[in-house]
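Inputs:
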Amino acid sequence: MEVKAEFLNVTVSRGSGDGVYQEAFQVPAYDNQTVLDVVSWIQQNVDPTLTYRFACRVGMCGSCAMMVNGQPRWTCRTHVKKVSTNQKLKIEPLRNLPVIKDLVADMDPFFGKWVEAEGVHHPTRTRYEPIEQIDPQDAARTTANEGIECINCAVCYAACDTVTNNADYLGPAALQRAWTVYNDVKDADKSAILDAVSGKGGCHSCHSIGSCTHYCPNELNPMQAIAGLKRATSKSFFKKGR
Amino acid sequence: MKRPARTHPLWLAYILHRLSGLILALFLPVHFYVLSQAITNPALLDGFLKFAEIPVVKVAEYGLVFLLAVHMFGGLRLMALEWLPWTAPQKTLAAGAVGAAFFLSTIFFLQAV
Amino acid sequence: MDIRLYMAQRLSALVMAPLVLGHIAVMIYAVQSGITTAEILGRTQGSILWFLFYGTFVLAVSVHAAVGVRVILNEWLGIKGNTLNLLSWAIGIGLLLLGGRAVLAVTFL
Amino acid sequence: MFTVKDIERHDTDILILGTGGAGLFAALHAQQSAPEGTKITIAVKGLIGKCGCTRMVQGGYNVALGGGDTVERHFMDTINGGKWLPNQDMAWRLCKEAVVRIRELENEIGCFFDRNSDGTLHQKAFAGQTADRTVHKGDLTGIEIINRLMEQVLSRPIEKLQEHRAIGLIPTKDGKALSGVLMIDMRTGKFRFVRAKTVLMATGGGPTMYKYHTPSGDKTMDGLAMALRVGLPLRDMEMVQFHPTGLLAGEHTRMTGTVLEEGLRGAGGQLINHNGARFMFDYDAKGERATRDVVSRGIYAEMRKNNNPEQVGVFISMAHLGPDNVRKKFSGMVKRCADSGFDLAAGKVEVVPTAHYFMGGVVVDVDTRTALEGLYVAGEDAGGAHGSNRLGGNGVANSTVYGGIAGDTMASDLRSMLTLREPDEAVLESELERAIHPLIKQPALVLPLRKQLQEVMWEDVGVMRTQTGMKRALKNIAEISQNLMEVGVSNDNLAFNLTWHDWLNMRSLCDISQVIAEAGIARENSRGAHFREDFPEPGELIDSYFTVAKQSGKDIEVTREPVEFTIVKPGETILPDHEPETLVAAQ
Ligand SMILES: Cc1cc2nc3c(=O)[nH]c(=O)nc-3n(C[C@H](O)[C@H](O)[C@H](O)COP(=O)(O)OP(=O)(O)OC[C@H]3O[C@@H](n4cnc5c(N)ncnc54)[C@H](O)[C@@H]3O)c2cc1C
Ligand code: HEM
Ligand code: SF4
Ligand code: F3S
Ligand code: FES
């Protein structure tokens, strides 16, 4: 009933390392079809060995991101209609990360940098103390809130040319997290954060290319967060001379 | 190859800034060399300045000043973005910078011819 | 790029901004009357102000371009470590020497 | 092909399966309280923190934090919500420890929950609660909780085995204790046996054997199927919670079944049947605002009345609240619907009840210990805390509270466990053979069988059940199960072979589906999520029993055990006399 006599011409990147090749598939087109559905259809119906990753299927877990027609996308929430012109789709693993197999990228470097950027809470209180009262309208709090809904999908990481060009660069998501923690009034070690983002691959490597912000599926603004870090580190540079 | 579309204004601003900086950096030694001829070989410098009257060279010169202006405003835009608390109409700033650069270098160009 | 390089690049850029504006203004004014070596030298020769003006520019631009090109060398050509350091210093010092000679040429020598 | 010799052997002290709220909390607590030098390993079917359902929590976290609300009140709501079936000691510990856990989440882990304008935590009420109790971060509470936990775990010296799927619990030769866990390293397709002194199973249940379901794709009842095979008792296995409003977007899309949040109905969203009429008031005086089970049954009944194949579900309509208003208040939901092509703000969206949460699970004590020495179970895999119905907001409280307890318990039990235990090699071998079974069969598609199973469960063991239906289901499940054993998976390339894992998923789902149907037949009354059309009455509360299912030979044996009212008896309350029935202002 929903099936139209139409097909999508899908090219999928297969393999890993030196053995990467492209394979073409014809996939029936449906209404309400997402890119993840297209990939799933191939695996479930024609090529059982096709590998991809997903979990939540509703844009919460950030594990399904791939390159779709050259652009980084969360595939579970990307409608085919939104990205395909003339029924053509080209699907590849996320850019800027090692490929494990087919459409699955190794996200370890991404999370390694997340921790390296001190994107981790430094407690001021323990579980035996009451929860801190914090004015939700407070300026720092509002700033922290802006980046808090990141689902670590690495779409921004894949979009950024600086990440491609500079292996040390921590990347937009990790830096945005660092900025969020930095603005958290509950955080005890702001100078550790500034130190972490002031090194070789820190926030200063960002050229404000803005692809991160452009592609973030959650409409977050890592570019702005990184600018915040540049500002904060500059201030502390003048104050402390380092 | 995996290559995200980069057709958004900020990416263009970035590549323009980078290329203009690079070309300026390549041109600068030449510029310095020519100027230092002022002592050792004034005729050469004069010759160069004459040479600079040729329209093609004029356009190239115009290009360099244009690049300098583009790069400078691009750079100022970046620093404003980084150091001043961020305001939303970012893209307007980028466009404005390029516009101003055009304006300046056009004046220069018109003055020159 | 770490914070030291970053600050060097931004601060030198800030120093250059008014100088570049000034320079362009002078050039606009100058080309109107048609530039000659004599004309340039007439303006600048023996002037400590012009020496400081261009001297500062040369100093700033050496730092600025060295850092700038360093980043590009690293990102686009993948040059790293000592080679990168060496190249950056070479660019900076090279520009400083060339530029210094040019400034001296038009002002004092 | 594979023999026991090909299994890579690996040792650790504490092994944790799963990285939902339970798994991650266990890792942190174990790391904090275990003796110096203890090796902690976390193994998970997906990536750390990026799979499972804790991340998908929208509404929030139930915890009594004063302002009139008390642990006693939270406890009474939990018991009433669970229709007097919960294990009261577990429910009590859940409510009591949640208070500590929420402070830990905020103060130590770094979560930030929404505040009132005076800076205190904002709390709201889910259906079935008598106080504003649910702490939240917008409607993305789970992302906040799991991201913060994940960062903490990633930044600690904990061994990580990502994309490692547990496939069998391997006991010692005498069967009294657990030796370790057999897994598949999904990326390479190789087998790995990890011995550990203590193992926490926190694989999060996951009723994904239903045509419509909400949990993440990695959850397929693996844990419960493994527990069943080592002979552990499973309780309340008939209790499958349906969320009334799952998105219906067609069979070919994974979006179908995903949940449209409860807040929509709370805010005044209307449910419309195929005749274009509101119907919920025909079923309950609270209309759309009735509890999940009631609304699910209302929708299901309407769906049955309708025989238009073009329209399967009912519609949720928000437009009368003002599209702009809806867009603002439910921006996440509106965007999500728009992505799949629906206009929630101004149009109407087709919905169906969708399998959401599994109340049943392994029988454990209040410290998460099981009958098998060395094995601990927490989170959605553990049964008892919720009885026949889980209150919205009690799910994540349960996984984080008991995950933490499991971490502490394992760390302290470990002190008296001096050596690793030797596995029963025969079990190891049979578990291996079970996993490679499809690799020697003629390759065929797995998906059609999954669809069949989902259809069977939805039709006959779903929102409303009868003995005839469930008997029929058992027959069908057995047939699907048998057919599955004839479906092969090509063994050319086992590295990250999703189809092999689809097959293994189906194996777990078939096994547990059978248990659900058997337990459903054994409960001859209607409580909470379990509704028998042939036994619509709840039965005497004082005679409440829970079901316990166990593998015995090839069969499933279900017994009934009386609920022990250790804290409060039906008809009584532990609230002080003068306490009002509810503190929530009528909506
Ligand atoms: C859409 C949705 C919304 C919800 N909203 C709420 C809410 O608002 N409030 C609330 O209290 N509760 C809510 N819940 C319920 C809540 O999410 C769960 O009760 C709770 O998070 C379960 O936690 P867990 O740690 O037991 O399991 P999960 O968080 O599901 O984690 C299970 C983990 O085990 C892993 N795993 C599974 N199988 C294997 C295997 N074979 N080997 C290795 N690892 C394995 C999984 O990959 C995953 O990492 C919601 C659930 C869903 C689906
Ligand atoms: C007034 C003048 C100038 C200003 C305000 C300015 C500003 C800047 C800024 C802010 C950057 C950093 C860009 C980034 O990190 O993305 C930069 C980069 C650079 N600048 Fe300049 N600059 C000026 C003049 C010059 C001149 C005269 C030269 C050349 C000789 C030059 C060469 C470069 C180069 C090569 C780069 C590196 C580009 C990159 O990394 O993408 N700049 N400039
Ligand atoms: S900032 Fe946006 S794009 Fe980047 S990881 Fe977070 S959610 Fe994804
Ligand atoms: S795209 Fe990259 S360079 Fe900076 S602004 Fe974003 S991180
Ligand atoms: S599958 Fe979770 S974000 Fe797409």
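The first helix of chain C runs from residue 3 to 32. Flag for discussion at group meeting.
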